Task: inverse folding
């Protein structure tokens, strides 16, 4: 049995890595993924890139702002006198105002703020203006209470920087929330893409064998279950090979590339040394930050992270890969897969989104713990939670559920697969597929 | 390889594919499994090849109940042909043999024989999708027999073959029989197998209608009907003979007559030659496989109605 599964896996592996597309995908896809996340990161950091500079006219009938409001990076404020007939003109191109902010006091003495624009201003813009005005009014009130300007700017510059320390066997040790987040997140991304890309390959491979009609010849030599497992494991090996090539590439290229990045960012090595040697406060702060980063890294349990990553990488793929194989067996062509793909990919996408939001914000919440137990989401969620420290009991429970989960999906998929690969014609309904589960061979 | 099929029944969700089939297939013969499309031929073949299992009944191969070890001894050519399109011919054939348990090295040796026989040396490095349909058929046939199975099962083997390739295939099937293999093949084109098959079984609507050796079946179903060609005036003895058909071409009469009772050819000829005719030919009209099938189905239906 194992011998034949091995033969099938070998064929899957060899035919796939011999393809030109494998080489291209292996080299190009990490660049694309890097580019993709690089762009997201870039736009998140430089929010202003997406926005144009906006001129806002302020008609301050209440004399609230005293003809003075600080501009922001993207908004410039200009005070205009109130002439009702002029309002429309202000929004015309000759003035170039994006919007007019009107401030009035009503009869009850309350302030009324109105932003008049040609289109619906974004929430971001509105809240930026609100923040600016609120800050200005607060400052004014504080000054009225006798706090002078120098003191005020000192107050406004109050900064709190929390160091994180985690309770370990050696007592409280320094951690690094940023780094741990990044490591967990990279693990989750890798597992997510791996399951998705190679799960779909399994599905395509099954459909291909079915439409080629070779499958009937093969199952006269091997059991359908052996064929399915051979295919899933062969494709897994392709994925692992690809992954190892990436690791190799990263190791080989990280030196030159980081040099290149330094150059691009205009960081001059002499400046760095000057900075660290300089007596200035900035210099020491930078070196201490770098030191704490390294300390955080050394405090991470690297073997545990690597071990669990490997486990969830493989188990998660088996769990989903089997389901993808079942989908492929049930249909005759790829267009029919949509309906069945949805319930399989949904939990995957769902857990990936939750991983980036709720789980990463609170890795030890009840929701996070439950998500890391359910095999549909645990491979991704566990990666995100892992660097923050998970009690051993939870790790064992999650792994046990994961193993039970993939044993179940492999069984489930095998039952569908053995009937599906020999069934041609009309796309089966969920009800029919359910019947296949218990149908005799 | 001797095959005994005992009382095999197979039901699918909505219909019965096989109902209480009993068949004995002796070793070393070519056995034809005949019947119209949808009769249950492929269902029976899939049970033999262990792609599916019978709901009831048993199958013995050389006295041993069918099991996974038998897979190696079988070669199966399904009705719907298929190969991995992107795979090279040699790799593909070796892979199929390896799945049957033949070590790669040995499979390479055996492949040489077929490469010479079919003169396909130049194809070996090509991908299957680059070959013509006829070439693909040949490759698939080699894939079916490369592991030298004792039992070869061919489902509609001639479909899609042109006459020349069909002839080559027929020769190969006969050669494999000479080497001792048992060959089962199914077809709905019943006349195509009369010359090739030693024994046949007719299946209709999931039931076996009849089985036996081809000459015996012909004997059993013959209607004592004869074709006579002659010149001159024939006085037919109406008490002994029925005139079934008659036609005349260029002065030559061609008639079909049937006899009520079983009388010897000698007696028939004696009767005919009492008339002043120039007898050109005389032969017994044996029923075709198709006619036997129709007759057997009719008889079976009558039997059912009588019940």
Result:
């Amino acid at each position: 049995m194992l011998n034949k599964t091995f033969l099938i896996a070998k064929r899957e592996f060899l035919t796939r890595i011999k393809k030109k597309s494998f080489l291209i995908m292996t080299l190009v896809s990490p660049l694309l993924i890097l580019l993709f996340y690089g762009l997201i990161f870039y736009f998140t950091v430089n929010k202003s890139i997406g926005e144009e500079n906006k001129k806002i006219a302020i008609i301050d009938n209440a004399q609230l702002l005293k003809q003075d409001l600080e501009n922001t990076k993207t908004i410039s404020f200009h005070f205009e006198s109130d002439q009702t007939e002029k309002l429309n003109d202000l929004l015309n191109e000759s003035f170039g105002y994006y919007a007019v902010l009107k401030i009035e006091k009503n009869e009850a003495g309350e302030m009324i703020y109105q932003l008049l624009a040609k289109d619906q201003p974004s929430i971001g813009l509105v809240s930026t203006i609100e923040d600016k005005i609120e800050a200005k009014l607060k400052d004014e009130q504080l000054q009225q209470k006798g706090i002078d300007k120098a003191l005020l700017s000192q107050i406004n510059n109050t900064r709190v920087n929390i160091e994180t320390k985690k309770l370990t066997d050696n007592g409280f040790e320094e951690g690094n929330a940023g780094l741990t987040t990044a490591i967990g997140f990279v693990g989750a991304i890798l597992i997510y893409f791996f399951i998705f890309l190679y799960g779909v390959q399994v599905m395509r491979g099954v459909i291909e064998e079915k439409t080629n009609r070779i499958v009937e010849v093969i199952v006269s030599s091997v059991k359908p279950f052996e064929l399915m497992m051979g295919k899933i494991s062969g494709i897994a090996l392709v994925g692992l090979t690809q992954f190892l090539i990436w690791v190799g590439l990263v190791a080989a290229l990280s030196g030159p590339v980081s040099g290149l990045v330094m150059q691009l960012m205009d960081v001059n090595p002499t400046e760095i040394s000057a900075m660290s040697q300089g007596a200035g406060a900035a210099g020491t702060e930078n070196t201490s930050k770098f030191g704490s980063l390294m300390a955080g890294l050394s405090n991470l349990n690297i073997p545990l992270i690597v071990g669990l990553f490997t486990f969830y990488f493989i188990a998660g793929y088996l769990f989903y890969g089997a389901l993808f194989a079942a989908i492929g067996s049930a249909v005759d062509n790829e267009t029919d897969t949509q309906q069945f793909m949805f319930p399989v990919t949904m939990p995957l996408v769902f857990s990936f989104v939750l991983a980036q939001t709720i789980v990463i914000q609170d890795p030890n919440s009840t929701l996070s713990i439950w998500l890391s137990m359910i095999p549909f989401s645990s491979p991704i969620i566990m990666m995100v939670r892992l660097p923050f420290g998970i009690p051993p009991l939870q790790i064992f429970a999650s792994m046990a559920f994961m193993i039970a989960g993939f044993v179940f999906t492999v069984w489930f998929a095998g039952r569908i697969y053995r009937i599906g690969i020999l069934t041609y014609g009309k796309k089966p309904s969920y009800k029919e597929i359910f019947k296949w589960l218990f149908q005799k061979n | 390889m001797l095959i005994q099929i005992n009382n095999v029944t197979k039901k699918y969700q909505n219909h019965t594919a096989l109902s209480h089939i009993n068949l004995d297939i002796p070793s070393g013969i070519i056995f034809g499994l005949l019947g119209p499309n949808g009769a249950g031929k492929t269902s029976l073949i899939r049970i033999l090849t262990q792609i599916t299992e019978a709901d009831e009944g048993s199958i013995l191969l050389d006295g041993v109940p069918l099991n996974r070890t038998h897979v190696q001894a079988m070669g199966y050519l399904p009705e719907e042909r298929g190969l991995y399109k992107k795979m090279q011919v040699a790799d593909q054939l070796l892979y199929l043999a390896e799945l049957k348990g033949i070590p790669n090295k040995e499979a390479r040796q055996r492949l040489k024989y077929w490469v010479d026989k079919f003169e396909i040396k130049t194809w070996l490095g090509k991908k299957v999708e680059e070959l013509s349909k006829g070439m693909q058929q040949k490759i698939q046939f080699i894939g079916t027999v490369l592991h030298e199975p004792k039992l070869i099962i061919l489902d509609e083997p001639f479909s899609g073959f042109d006459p020349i390739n069909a002839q080559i295939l027929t020769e190969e099937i006969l050669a494999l029989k000479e080497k001792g293999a048992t060959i089962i093949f199914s077809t709905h084109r019943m006349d195509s197998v009369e010359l090739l098959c030693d024994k046949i079984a007719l299946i209709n609507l999931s039931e076996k209608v009849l089985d036996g050796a081809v000459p015996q079946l012909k004997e059993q179903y013959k209607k004592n009907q004869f074709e006579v060609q002659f010149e001159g005036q024939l006085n037919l003895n109406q008490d002994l003979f029925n005139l079934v058909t008659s036609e005349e071409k260029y002065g030559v009469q061609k008639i079909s007559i049937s006899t009520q009772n079983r009388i010897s050819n000698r007696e028939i000829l004696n009767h005919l030659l009492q008339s002043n005719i120039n007898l050109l030919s005389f032969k017994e009209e044996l029923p075709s496989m198709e006619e036997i099938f129709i007759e057997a189905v009719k008889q079976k239906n009558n039997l059912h109605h009588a019940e």
Summary: The longest helix of chain A spans residues 224-264. The radius of gyration of chain A is 30 Å. Confidence is low (pLDDT under 50) at residues 267-287 of chain A.
